[in-house]
Amino acid sequence: xxxxxxxxxxxxxxxxxxxTITKPEVVQASPQKSVSAYELQxxxxxxxxxxxxxxxxxxxDENQFRTWDQxxxxxxxxxxxxxxxxxxxxxxxxxxDYKKAKLIYEWIVKNIRYAQPTETPGLDPYEVFTTKKxxxxxxxxxxxxxxxxxxxxxVTIAGNTPYGAHEWNLVYADKEWFYSDSTWGxxxxxxxxxxxxxxxxxxxxxxxxxxxxxxxxxxxxGFWEGVAVVDVEKNVKDVIVPEKFRDLxxxxxxxxxxxxxxxxxxxxxxxxxxxFGSVITFLKRLSSNFSLHMFSAVHLMISYFLFSFSxxxxxxxxxxxxxxxxxx
Length: 328
Description:
This protein is an alpha/beta fold. The protein has ten helices and 18 strands.
């Protein structure tokens, strides 16, 4: 037990040591504006990251996202029928899914307003539909519900923008997935379907909500800061995290896999660089009768702190500290 506790202490000290942030190099982008090398690299990483989310969902059957998922919020049959009648009026006579989606997007932008700080915003689709006010979570849920009622696959996205946490959607039409942000439609209708590069300048996916697939070694795979092991099958005691899902690297693992499970052994591949969820849960399991491959332990913990502290470059210090506090 003493050796285990010494190991944990050593991991934390090593992680802190490796988490030193150097001052970003500044390069001249134009005579009027300086852009840091870090900012340029971050834009490229965000583009690749958002593309990876599309690559992941492209391996899913889009039909599973063609109907409303009650885990996103209650939607009663009678309420759905009322919204569906509105959708039928909006897309009347249109046969192409892409054009239907754009008409629904335009209706939401014109009819739903962003809730003021003193107002209680709607979140569930019917609540937003009737009160006509919401914040991003309500916008994205109503958008998905209306798209689904038109027979169009869609999912909700939790992510980040330069202005903070945000939600938007992935929409499937014309045999492709594309990002669509109905909340920001009031500023520009272009947010219905920007190029991936333009969209990634202001949006970075954190999580595809309620999107999972069965992976190798009894794992459940989702997308959370990258392709991730988000759960395991029931009654699995020994877990070997796969290196890949199809041809995509698995780069993250959730501490939630320990919740209510009897996992006794965990082996993590070298590709995993992100631990999300509660690091305290992870440490408790590490200090109990739980076997974790030595390399996996050091690798995971150092990666966790590198990921956490590197976020300070992209966010202000207060936001980063809040991130760390919420994480533990």
